[in-house]
Amino acid sequence: MKKIVIFSLFFLLVSGISSAARDATESLPLMAIEVSTACVNKDVQVAVLNQKGSPLAGADIDVIYKNLKVAYGKTDEDGIFVFRAQKMGANLLTAKKDGYKDTTIQVNVSQCIPVTSSTSQPPATSMTTTTRTTSSTSTTTTTTLFSCNNNRICEPGENYANCPGDCTSGGKDGYCDHVADGICDPDCYRKDDPDCLCNGNGICEYEFENITNCAIDCPSGASDGICDGIADGICDPDCPDGVGDLDCKKTDYSTLIFPLIGILILFGAFAAYNMRREAKKHNTDRSEENLIQDFKRRLRDGEDPQVLKKELAALGMDLSLLEKAEKGLWE
After folding, report:
1. 36-45 CB burial, b ≥16 within 10 A, e <16
2. Per-residue model confidence (pLDDT) at position 16
3. Separation in Å, CA 21 to CA 16, 18, 96, 117, 258
4. 3-state helix, strand, coil in the chain (%, to 5)
5. Nearest to 324 by CA among 295, 302, 297
6. In a 3-state reduction of DSSP, which class is residue 239?
7. DSSP 233
8. DSSP string, 75-86
9. What would the pLDDT profile of 65-93 be if each residue is shown by its tens digit?
10. What is the DSSP string of 264-275?
11. Which of helix, strand or coil describes residue 130?
12. Which of 19, 187, 191, 310 has its CA 20 to 30 A from that of 265?
């Protein structure tokens, strides 16, 4: 019983200390990471900022590609780290700094093929030439015209800008239309079309996604640059110093003082009670042993055992003490 109580008290103390340490870690501010467009065989610039938007120097950066560290280093005094993207695909970038939570984002490295001029200027499909002659000079003027045939087929030279009747929004026509139509335009960079931001891959990509435009990848409480303040039991790391999110309440360590005092008082009372009980038992055992030795002496002197038995009964003591004394005569 004693061991069980002591173990329970020890478990309560350890649990309280572990909970306090965990709360302290969760209350650390989160770093913000901004990454430039990531193109293969090009330098990628990474900027690490605090929650107020100021650069963080000396942050440790690791870049992982397919479980291999392909780049690492520290941010400079402007909070900048630069690495060269050698392979296309997803790279995990982690930033670490004392006093801040570790932050990890995914950097998608692509081919980055430039969009041709047709994305902003509709191509010409027909041409007419006009010659004008004056008394002294002869001038030839070439005028470019475009004609949309409205045959409901998006043909070369036609796009959403110059022929919306044939080329619908979001179609592959060499023109990024920027229209929010629920279709990711294949002619747009990911940032240029709002429908391309959320890819639904289960990873909250800080550069493109947040709870507003991609709740499926960035649920409430995720690190997405937006303090959503939703009561979900999670302290949103994007809320500066926890302001704006009721789930970011800081631990009040003063509330642990009274429970700890109560535990110490309980432990002390139990220890005192146990010491008194052990002392009482020791005194009782010693008295009985002295009485047995006295009975042995009197029996050797020839005293009647019945007289001794009556004496024990009058004292209200256990009659087995006489039996122990009789047995002890032969030992």
Report:
1. eebeeeeebe
2. 55
3. 9, 5, 19, 58, 19
4. 35, 20, 50
5. 295
6. coil
7. S
8. --TTSEEEEE--
9. 988 899 999 999 999 999 998 888 889 99
10. HHHHHHHHHHHH
11. strand
12. 19
Structure tokens at 305: 């055992």
* Cα–Cα distance measured from residue 54 to residue 160, given in angstroms and rounded to the nearest whole number: 42
CB–CB of 175/119 below 8 Å? yes
- pTM for the model stands at 0.33
Task: With CA atoms as reference, report the closest residue to 281 among 292, 273, 293.
Answer: 273
Secondary structure of residue 119 in the 3-state scheme: helix
pLDDT value at 15 more than 60:
no
| CA 310 – CA 319 distance, rounded (Å) | 9
**Is 299 in contact with 325 (CB distance < 8 Å)?**
yes
Tell me the backbone φ, ψ of residue 303, rounded to 5 degrees: -70, 145
- Residue 94 identity (one-letter amino acid): T
- Please list the residues that pair with 142 across neighbouring strands: 129
Each residue's pLDDT tens digit, 83-125:
998 888 889 999 999 999 999 999 998 877 554 433 434 444 4
Question: What residue has token string 């139990």?
Answer: 270
Q: Is 173 in contact with 160 (CB distance < 8 Å)?
A: yes
**What 3-state class would DSSP assign to 296?**
helix
- For residue 202, count other CB atoms closer than 10 A to its CB: 7
User: Looking at 170-174, 222-226, 246-250, which range is the least confident one?
Assistant: 246-250
Give the Cα separation of 271 and 273 in Å (integer).
6
**Max Cα distance, the chain (Å):** 170
Sign of the CA dihedral with 310 first, then 314, 319, and 325 last? negative
